[in-house]
Write a structure and sequence with these properties.
The protein is an alpha/beta fold and 388 residues long. The chain is 47% helix and 15% strand. Among the domains are: 5-149, Rossmann fold (3-Layer(aba) Sandwich); 318-388, Rna Polymerase Sigma Factor, Chain: A. It is built from 17 helices and 11 strands. The strands form 2 sheets. It has a 7-stranded parallel beta sheet with strand order 4-3-2-1-5-6-7, sandwiched between helices. Strand 1, helix 1 (15-26) and strand 2 form a beta-alpha-beta unit. Bound molecules: nicotinamide-adenine-dinucleotide and magnesium ion.
């Protein structure tokens, strides 16, 4: 008999969460689901809980508690609500945890899973951006395992020689360039949320889609890569590759460049991390290079995409700068999605908050959470000034 892997999914109702559920449903004999968490999509969460026979489910927003209780009435499934319940979901004894909550809201629960020494599929890049040093220290201390789910980092994880870091020259993070890759700044001035979330290659949640359009996503990924891999900041390069076929590369000192390729379908990196260190089949379309015929590359334009410059500067500045960058960006993206500010106001707000912040070292998670809160308050002021 094959021993089942017990798993929890933090953020099971999102884009990464539903792709993870899809893979589990295709392989029911391999997984045993412990907890599932959502925020507002109660119907989907309850459906997943029943299908996967979860032990514990909860909603982050307590307002949805009664609705969840009604949906699961008569089922032998424990339920909860609120931030504490999400922490409880992460604490439950699953071997493997998918960290797929969006934003800094994922930090505290992901940290709980690390403290249990669990194997974590990390999609929630914002947690590494705001607390990278503390998270990586905790991974060492509690002997947890972080498996990057973000497609670029998953690619690097597959081709990087961790045992011989002295042979690595640099990491090349590929970027699609997003829906506005060829837009002038004047054109970007008036783009709508609907245009920004319509990514040319990937189907993703709204926040990361806007981040891809502004290239802040690549900036967050630069910081993510810095924490995950033994490479200095100046040796992490960004290369625009519009087809999203090469998911990233590692260049070695002898001139060899190793890359991981695949169709742009998150079920491949999710399957890799779910089955690690083995492999499992994934339903992603098989790569047909003859059909694609051409792969293109270009340098990123930091003038049209200032978010990428801001992220690199924040990484170089260190201390609280990456945490502030992330918090201000989350608030600005949310205001853009509500049509309160324009697209170019997103990096402008982030830059203003970064410049006005009294940056300090972040030695404890509580300091990270306080910094995140303060940066959000400053971001709201920056948005107010620019409100339409
Ligand atoms: P999404 O918006 O589709 O889903 C977010 C999930 O988080 C949902 O389950 C939602 O209920 C939950 N959530 C939202 N706010 C919450 C809160 N305050 N507290 C607790 N839970 C909350 O997002 P997504 O696209 O699935 O992205 C999830 C994470 O994965 C992000 O960090 C993103 O950067 C990363 N990621 C996503 C993709 C992708 O293809 N979607 C690719 C790489 C990395
Ligand atoms: Mg990515």
């Amino acid at each position: 008999m094959v021993l089942k892997k017990s798993i929890s999914i933090l953020g099971s109702t999102g884009s990464i969460g539903t792709n993870t559920v899809d893979l589990i449903k295709r392989n029911p004999d391999q997984f045993n689901v412990i907890s599932l968490t959502g925020n507002s999509n109660v119907k989907l969460l309850a459906k997943q809980a029943k299908e996967l026979q979860a032990e514990f489910v909860c909603v982050a927003d307590s307002v949805n508690y009664t609705a969840l209780k009604e949906e699961l009435d008569g089922f032998d499934i424990e339920i909860g609500a609120g931030e504490e319940a999400v922490i409880e979901a992460a604490k439950r004894d699953a071997d493997w945890v998918m960290a797929s909550i969006v934003g800094a809201a994922g930090l505290a629960p992901t940290f709980e899973a690390i403290k249990r020494g669990a194997i974590i599929g990390l999609a929630n890049k914002e947690s590494l951006v705001c607390a990278g040093d503390l998270m990586m220290q905790a991974v060492q201390e509690y002997r947890a395992t972080l498996l990057p789910v973000d497609s670029e980092h998953n690619a690097i994880f597959q081709v990087l020689d961790f045992k011989r870091p002295e042979g690595i020259e640099k990491i090349i993070l590929t970027a699609s360039g997003g829906p506005f890759r060829t837009f002038s700044k004047a054109q970007m001035q008036s783009v709508t949320p609907a245009q920004a979330v319509a990514h040319p290659n990937w189907s993703m949640g709204a926040k990361i889609s806007v981040d891809s359009a502004s290239m802040m996503n690549k900036g967050l990924e630069l910081i993510e890569a810095f924490h995950l891999f033994p490479v200095a900041e100046e040796n992490i390069e960004v290369l625009v590759h519009p087809q999203s076929v090469i998911h990233s590369m590692v260049s070695y000192i002898d001139g060899s460049v190793l890359a991981q390729l695949g169709s742009p379908d998150m079920r491949t990196p999710i399957a890799y991390s779910l089955a690690w260190p083995d492999r499992m089949p994934a339903p992603s379309p098989k790569l047909n290079l003859a059909e694609i015929a051409q792969l293109n590359f270009e340098q990123p334009d930091l003038e049209r995409f200032p978010a990428l410059r801001l992220a690199r500067e924040a990484l170089q500045a260190g201390q609280s700068a990456p945490c502030v960058l992330n918090a201000a960006n989350e608030v600005a993206v949310s205001a853009f999605l509500k049509e309160q500010i324009g697209f170019l106001d997103i990096p402008a707000c982030v830059e203003e908050v970064l410049n006005n912040f009294d940056h300090k070292d972040l030695k404890m998670i509580e300091q990270v959470l306080n910094t995140d809160k303060k940066a959000r308050e400053l971001a709201l002021q920056a948005i107010e000034k620019r409100s339409k």
